[in-house]
Amino acid sequence: MIRLGRFVTGVIPLAVLSGVLLAALLMMNAATQNSAVFGRVYSLLLLVNVVGIVLLLALILFNLFNLIEQYRARVPGTRLSLRLLILFVLLSVLPVSVVFVFSVDTLNRGIDQWFDVKIEQALDDALLLGRTALDAVKQDLIKRAQEMAADLETVSSAAPGRANRAALTALNNLREIHSVTELTLFAPDGLIVASSGEASLGASTLVPDRPNETILAQVRQGMPYASLDAQGKSGLRLRVVVPVYAREVGAPRRILQAIQTLPPRYTKLGESVQTAFAEYEKLVYLRGPLKFGYTLTLSLVALLTMLVAVWAAIFSARRLVAPIRDLAEGTRAVARGDYRKQLPITSHDEIGMLVASFNDMTRRIHRAQTQLKRSQQEAEVQRAYLETVLTHLSSGVLSFDSRHILRTHNAAAVQILGVDLGYAEGKSLEWVGERHPAMAAFVIAVRAAMATAQSEWQVQVSLEEGRRTLIARGTLLPALSGRRSGYVVVFDDVTALIQAQRNAAWGEVARRMAHEIKNPLTPIQLAAERMRHKFLKLLPPEERATLERATRTIIEQVEALKSLVNAFSDYARAARTEPGPVQLNELVRDVVELYQSGHEPAGGVAPIALRLELDERLPILVADAGRLRQVLHNLLLNARDALAGNPRPIIGVSTRLVAEPPRRFAELKVQDNGPGFPEAMLGRLFEPYVTSKEKGTGLGLAIVKRIVEEHGGAILAENAKEGGAYVTIRLPLEEVAARPAVPDETPARAAGRQLRGKGSS
Amino acid sequence: MRVCGKSDALRAWLAAWMLGLALAAGAEFRIAEIQPKLIGDSLQFAGTLDLAFTPKVEEALAKGIELTLVIDVKLNRVRRFWWDQNLGRWALRRSIRFHALAGQYLVSDPGASADNWESFTVLADALKYLGALNELKLTLPEAPPAGDYSVDLRVGLDIEALPTPLRPVAYTSLSWRLNSGWTTWGVAR
Q1: pLDDT at position A756, please?
Q2: CB contact (8 A) between residue A32 and residue B115
Q3: B168 and A289 in contact by Cβ < 8 A?
Q4: How far apart (Å, rounded) are the C-alpha atoms in residues A102 and A56?
Q5: Which residues of chain A does B100 touch, with a Cβ-Cβ cutoff of 8 Å?
Q6: What range defines the domain where residue A89 resides?
Q7: Does a structural domain hold residue B14?
Q8: A236 neighbourhood in chain B, CB within 8 Å
C-alpha cells in the first residue's frame, strides 16, 4: 500500500500520463483539421483525453490530499511545500488561463471570419442559376415528352404481343427524332410496355429505370412529373414522366417516361456548383460544432497544461523542500540525542553544502560524544576501583573540600570512629563534632591541622579518655584551576599497636627481672639458711629466737620474691602449647567443681553461688587443655576476689556456639556481680601489673590474654550494665582451632590478633 | 419543509427530463415489424423500420451532412437450458444525403453497388425506402441445423460516420441519439 502510494505520488506515472495525453491531444487536433487518419479515431482520442485528464486530476488530487494530510499532521517541511505550491500554481495557472481565454476568443472570431456573406450569396446565386438553366432544359424535355405522348396515343396496346412491338418501334422512332437517352412506356399498373434506350448505354441500363409509386400516382392523375436526378458519379439526368392518353374510348391511360442525360459540360458545371455549394453549406453548418471542437481541444490543452503545471508545482515543491525537511528531521534527531544521523546529499548546490555541513557536524558531535562516554566510563571504572580500595582499606579515609565540608568517607572510617557518617556528607567538620561529642577531640585536632594549610601533616588523637589512640595523616588534594583545594585525611586506630608495644616492654621488664633478681635470691636464701644452721646452736637461747625469726623471715621473703619472679618469668617466657581435643563444657565443669567444694570461704562470708549455662551443641575444639584450665582458674580467682564482702556473691559461667560466617567460635563468658572494673583501668586491664587488688601480682589477666591469643582467640573485659564485670573469650573452631599459635610468637603480634578479635566480637 | 422543497425540485427536474425523453422518443427509430425467414443458407427479411429524424438531424441533412444508418443483425440459435448460440453478426450501412441542385434526397441502395443512389423529392419517401427491408438477404457460411432461431435487430444513426467536428456535439446531444435498441424476433423456416 505504501509502495503504491509512493508510485502514485512519483514522477513516472504523471510524466507518462502527461506524455500520452499530449500525444492524444495532438492527434485530436489533427483530426479536427480534417485529417482522415485521426478522423476515424477522433471519438476514441477524445475519450482517451477525457479519461486521461480525469486520471491526472485524480492523481493531482491524491497528491494534494497527501500534502494537506501531512500539513495537518505538522510534518516538517509541508508548510513550505504548500507555500511554494500555491506560488507555483499561481505563476503557471494564471498565465495559462489568460492565454486560454484570449485564444478561444480569437479562434471564434477567426472561424467566423472564414464565412464571407458575399461568397455565400454568390454560391446561392450560382445554385439558382444552375437550377434555372436546368429548368429550361427540363421544360423543353417536358414539351417534347408531351409531344411524344401525343404521338403514342395512336399506338395501340390492346393486344400485348403485337402492340408492344408497335410501341417499341414507335418509341425507337420518337427517341431518334427527339434525341432522348431513354424512352419507356408503362402500362397503367406500372408494368413496362416497351422501352428504348441508347445503344451506347451499358448493360446496366438494359432494365429501364422505373419511377416510384409517388411519381406514378401523380402522373395517373394527369399531372406531368419532371425532376433532375442525381446519380452518384454517373452525373445528372432529367426524368420526365407524362400520361399517354388513349384515342380509343375505354382504353387505359398509359405513362411515358423520358430520360435525358445532361451533356457532360452541363453535368460537370452542375456538379461543380453542387459540390461547392454543398461543401460551403456544410462548412457553415459545421461552424458551430467546429468552434465547439476547437474550443474543446483548446480547453483540454489548457486543462492538461494547468494540471501538468500543478503537478510540476507539487513535484518541484516537494523536491525543493525534501532536503530542508531532511535537515529539520536531522536536527530533531540530534536534539533527541541521536548523533549518528547522516542525511543523503541529493544535490551539489547550497542546500547540498548545508546537508554536507550538517553531516560533518553530527559526525564530529558523535565522535566527541563517544570520546566523552569512553572517558566517563573510564572515570567510572577508576571511581569504582578507588571505592573498592577505600572500602576494603583498614584505615579510615575522609575527604574534605576547601571549606572543610565532608565529601566522602569509607566503611573503615565509620568503624573506627563509631559514627554513621552517611548523613554527615555535605556537612562541615564542626557539625559532625557537635553531633558526636566522642569525636570532639578528633574533630578539633583535624581542623587545627587543616587550618595550617600544610600539604601534609600528621596528628595523634586520644579518644575515650585515652583508651583509644588514632593517628591521622592529612594530604592536600591537588587544586583544580587555581581554586583552593580540600584534604584527604587517612587515620588508623593504633590503640592495639601501642598496647602491643607496651606488652613487649613489659615482657622485657619481666625477663630482666627474672634474670637480674632471681640469680641473687638463691645465694641470699642459702646464706640465710647457713647462717641459721651455723649460729643457731652457738647463740644463747634468748637470742636464738631472734636469729630464728630473722632467718625465717629472710627465707620466706626470698621464697616470696622467687615466686614473684617465677610469675614474671612465666609471663615473659613463650610457653609451649600442646594442643589436643578438648571438650570445653567438661573442662568448665571440672574446674568449677573445685571451686564449689574445695574453696569454701571462711569466717562467716556468704558462699558464692556458681551458675553454669553451658551450650551442649558446642563441638570439641583443639586446644591445650592445661592452659585453658589455667585461664579458667585465673578468671574464677579474679571473680572471687572481686566478690569479697559481697553479701550475695554470684559467678556465672556460660559457653556458647557463635557462628559468624564463614567462621565459628566457642565462647566462654565469666561474669560476677561485684563492683566491676574501675573505669580508668578498662583500657589497660590486660597489661601486666595493672590491678585494683591489694594483693596479687597483677599478671592474672595478662596471662589469660596471652594464652587466649596463643589459641588464636580474642578476649574482651567489660563492665555489665546491670552491675558487675564480665570477661568473654572466643576461641576459633575447626581449621582455625587446629592451628594453634606458634610458641615463639611475639606479644606485638598477639596484640594484633586481639585487635581482630575485638573487631569481630 | 426544506426536505419537501428539495424533493419538489427533484420531481420537477425528473418530469422535465422524462418530457425531454418523450419528445426525443417521438423522433426515434423503431423496428415496426420484421419477419425473418431462414431459407437454406440465407436469412431473408420482410418488414419495415420506422425511421424519423429530429429537427436538428433534418437540418444537418438539409445542410449537406451525409447521414449513415447502421442496421445490426445477430442470428442466434435458441437453446433451452443454456445461453443462445450466436451464429452470425452483420452490420449493414445505408446512407442518405441531400442534393441541393436537384433538391432531392439521395439514398444509397443496399442491394446494388455503393455508387447507386435512389433519389426522392420528399424526405418521408426517402426514409420509407431506407426503412424497407424487403430485399434484404444475408448469407450464412452453411445452412444451419434444425432448431429454433431468433434474430436480434437494431438500427441507429452512426455518429462515427459524421464529420469530425460534429461528433462531440452528436455524442453530447440527445437530438442526435437515434437508436432503436435491440429487439428480438423469431425466425421462421
Answers
A1: 35
A2: no
A3: yes
A4: 25
A5: 127, 274, 277-278, 281
A6: 2-114+288-317
A7: no
A8: 101-102
If you search the block for the grid coordinates 419477419, which residue do you land on?
B35
- Which three three-digit cell numbers place residue B68? 449513415
> Which residues in chain A are contacts of B109 at CB distance < 8 A?
none
CA dihedral A241, A243, A244, A250 (to 10 degrees): 150
**Which residue, among A129, A280, A285, would best test binding to B if mutated, counting the most B CBs under 10 Å from its CB?**
A285
- Whether B17 maps to a domain, the answer reads no
In a domain, B148, yes or no: yes
Q: How do residues A121-167 score in pLDDT, each as one tens digit?
A: 888 888 898 888 888 888 989 998 888 888 888 776 555 555 577 78
Q: Using CB atoms, which residue from B60, B104, B164 is nearest to A285? A: B60
CB-nearest partner of A230 from B64, B99, B168: B99
Could you tell me which chain A residue has the CA closest to the CA of B66?
A: A282
* A209 plus A270 within the same structural domain: yes
The answer to whether the Cβ–Cβ distance between B119 and A227 falls below 8 Å is: yes
Q: Are residues A110 and A217 in the same domain?
A: no
A489 and A507 assigned to the same domain: no
A-B C-beta contacts closer than 8 Å? 98
pLDDT in the model for residue A721: 85
For residue A271, give the C-alpha cell: 456538379
Burial grade of A140 (CB within 10 A; 0-12, 13-18, 19 or more): middle
Can you give the CATH number for the domain in which A414 is found? 3.30.450.20
ipTM (interface predicted TM): 0.74
Same domain, A636 and A713: yes
SS3 (DSSP) at B94:
strand
Closest-approach residue (CA) in chain B for A277: B100
Residue A6 belongs to a domain:
yes
What gap in Å lies between CA B129 and CA B149, rounded to an integer? Answer: 27
Which of A43, A127, A288 shows the shortest C-beta gap to B100? A127
Whether A68 shows a pLDDT value over 90: the answer reads: no
Q: Is residue B100 part of a domain?
A: yes
pTM: 0.51
Q: Which residues pair with A197 in a beta bridge?
A: A182
